[in-house]
Every structure is written in structure tokens, then in C-alpha cells.
Amino acid sequence: MALHILTSLSGSPGVTSTALTWAQVSDRPTLLIEADPAGGSPMLCIGWGGAHPHDRSILDLAVHPTTEYVERIWELAIPLPGRERQAWLVPTVGMAAQMKSLMGVFGPMGEALARISRDSHVDVLVDIGRLGAAGASTQLWQYADTVLLFTDTTLAALNTLAVGSPALVDELDGIGARHRLAVVPLLGDEKGASHRPYGAREIGGITDGVPVLTGVARDAKAAGSRVWGKRGRYPLSVKRLIAGVDQHAREAHAVLGGERAPA
After folding, report:
1. CATH number, domain at 81?
2. Cα–Cα distance between 42 and 195 in angstroms, integer?
3. Tens digit of pLDDT for each residue in 177-189?
4. Has residue 262 been placed in a domain?
5. How far apart are CA 116 and CA 2, in angstroms?
6. What is the mean pLDDT of the segment spanning 76-90?
7. Which sign does the torsion angle of CA 93, 95, 101, 103 carry?
8. For residue 192, is pLDDT > 60?
């Protein structure tokens, strides 16, 4: 199995809803780690409809030795409704100010998550939110099999992608991990195709060789629901994305070498 980092350069391109839907429609066990520095756990809110208290978070790891992180992560993990033995969530912090206490946590947490994905045969998805606010959570990148950069496909969002992605490429180059990076576009809109007219080919022209994976269908109603089905445009597009990410992870591993190959 593999460890995937999900992030974006601008707000609301579908990172959180895609991660939740991925965990629901995947054929494999999936562990969600919500590490968005904004806090408040939208995953917990959407997934349980506000019925589950925010009584645990990644912040709890800060009071334990790093050698215990694998065990502690599983203790914190909450089974997702409908997939109790197949998908779990560890929520993010309650408020942004608490992220300051996690400066020394993300590195060893990344190592622990890589062990979980390898030894427990679980896909691990880490939502680090918007990249400009990610801070210390970028320490996770060196342990990831893929880094997935989500983008809306409006002209404004693609301008942000063109301006901001070179810095991310340079940072990943610095740890020998450029080939782990891929762009995931959010496609379609209820306002009509003319509002988001750009597809993978056009987006690939501004990413300087970074691969553009199959896009996720934009469906605000389905993405915001806590009742996931496996049919319909939105969940089917997420299933296609999973297949595309699996292939990208295999290709990245082939380029980079390494000790383990994603399943």
C-alpha cells in the first residue's frame, strides 16, 4: 500500500471531500490523516454529520514518545460510518494555534505512517490543506509515495498553479522526490463548461513536466454529503483517480528506486 499527501495552492479545490470519498469508495483499507493547519476538522463534521465529538486529534501524538506513534495513531483512529473495518480518520487540531505544538511531530509521524502503509497494508491519505499554510506538515513529503496537488480549473486557479508550483517542484527536487508530484484538476461546474474550460492538455502546458492525472468531477452536493454511494459521476471520478494515482506511484517508484513499491 502507499502513503499519499493531498494539498493545494488555493482554497477549496476539493482536497478534503476527495479524500473522504476516496476512503469510502476504495476497495482497499484506507487511513485518513487530517493535518490541515486551519483546524476544526471538516472531515469529522462531514463524515459524522456533527454527531461525533472532536475529542481527539493529531495533537495527541505530541505527548507520546515517537517510538509509540504507530500504536498511538491506531488508538486515535475513528472508524468511518459504513466502513468500520476498512476506513478510519485521525482528525486535525481543533484550532490553528495548536499547530505550533506539532513542529517536532510531523517528521516522526510521517515515518510511522509509512510503516503503517507498508506493514498493515493500508493506503494512508494525508490532507495537509492549502500549501501556503501547511508549515511543518511538509516534513511528511520525504515519506510519501505521491504528493497530489489539487487545483480548480478556472483561469484564476490555473494562474496560481503556474506561479506557485515551481517552488514546490524545487522543494521536492531538494529531497529527490520531484517524480512523486502530480496535479489533480477539479473538472466541470454547475455554471456550465465555459466557466471551467481547461482540461488536462491545457493544464499540462503550464506544469513544466509535472504529470496531470485524471480529474475529479465537480459536484458540490455529492462532495458535501456524508452518505456516499459508489455510483454517480462524482464517486466514479474518484475511483478513476485512485487508479491513476496507483499508476503514478508505480512510475515514481521506478524512477526514484527506493525500498518499497506501492501495491
Report:
1. 3.40.50.300
2. 27
3. 999 999 999 887 6
4. no
5. 9
6. 91
7. positive
8. no
Q: Helix crossing, 106-119 with 69-76: angle to 10°? A: 80
* pLDDT band (50, 70, 90) for residue 256: low
pTM exceeds 0.85: yes
Residue 191 lies in a domain: yes
Q: Which residues contact 71 (CB under 8 A, 6 or more apart)?
A: none
Contacts of 65 (CB under 8 A, 6+ apart): none
Residue 231: all three cell numbers together:
455510483
CA distances from 71 to 25, 38, 39, 64, 123 (A): 26, 26, 23, 10, 17
In total, how many domains does the chain have? 1
Helix axis angle, 15-25 to 233-256, nearest 10°: 90
Q: Which domain does 177 fall in, by range?
A: 3-256
Q: Which amino acid is at 142?
A: Q
SS3 (DSSP) at 236:
helix
**Type of residue numbered 95:** M
158 lies in some domain = yes
**Other beta carbons within 10 Å of 63:** 8
